[in-house]
Amino acid sequence: MDERKRDSIVAYLRRRMAEVGIELDDLAAAIAQDQIQYKSAKYRSATGETWSGEGEMPQWLKQAISAGQSVEHFGVGGAAQSAPAAGPKVDWRQDPFAGSPLATAHSPHIDAR
């Protein structure tokens, strides 16, 4: 991004903050709170939703588990993020389509080999 464009965006943000009464201290406090929440997360979804592992399990994690995903898959710093670079290993025991018609469908391209 060039410097003029950056300066223009900064000026726009400052104008909007002044219009709604947001001070720089308010913004800094909100960013600090987000960073604390981000660091305390034990589980994180692909969309950035987090859960510390305390209290009731959030809906996004409940839905993923009911779809057949493991809780460990969403662990921050867990095995899902430290996968070996040699290539992903697939654990078919965790296949959410196991037992469904989709799992038993045969492709004519695969059978022709």
UniProtKB/TrEMBL annotation:
Residues 78-113 are annotated as: Disordered. InterPro entries: H-NS_C_dom (IPR027444), H-NS_C_dom_sf (IPR037150). One of its GO terms (molecular function) is DNA binding. Residues 33-76 form the DNA-binding protein H-NS-like C-terminal domain. It holds the Pfam family Histone_HNS. Gene3D superfamilies: Histone-like protein H-NS, C-terminal domain. This is Histone family protein nucleoid-structuring protein H-NS.
